[in-house]
From TrEMBL:
It comes from Dyadobacter luticola. Pfam families: STAS (PF01740). This is STAS domain-containing protein. Signal peptide: none annotated. Coiled coil: none annotated.
Length: 130
């Protein structure tokens, strides 16, 4: 069975879906992504669906599941590249995609993930001078 590649980019995972997802492939992607979040300690998942012209209710549910499971593992989920027809379909199907952030493209999606990351204090001694 084919798999969707998952790329690690710093503290984030990037998935670019280039093929129409049938049910088994979508379930495999869900499992693979959640395992990679756990294995790598990723703080964000970016899913690029710009190549998809159709997202059905099952795929919408899978995206929602990925977001929910990633959130439990302390990672944010951003979906980018959504075609207008896909957005309309998701709304008409009544799929709110709770916990999923959206952005127009990969660049904006990465910026959104970066912005959602808590500030890291590299050295507590810097704060003692104030």
């Amino acid at each position: 069975m084919e798999r969707i590649p998952i790329l690690k980019m710093g503290k984030f995972l990037l998935v670019t879906i280039q093929v129409d997802l049938y049910d088994r492939l979508a379930l495999a992607l869900e499992e693979d992504l959640v395992m990679m979040v756990h294995k790598t300690g990723a703080k964000g998942v970016l899913i690029d669906i710009s190549a998809l012209s159709i997202v059905d209710s099952f795929m919408g549910k899978i995206i929602g599941n990925i977001a929910a499971m990633s959130s439990i593992l302390d990672a944010e989920t951003v979906v980018v590249g959504m075609q207008p027809a896909v957005a309309i379909t998701l709304i008409e199907l009544g799929l709110p995609l709770s916990g999923v952030y959206t952005a127009l493209n990969v660049e904006r999606g990465m910026a959104l993930l970066e912005a959602r990351m808590p500030e890291e204090t590299g050295n507590d001694r810097d704060n003692d001078d104030e």
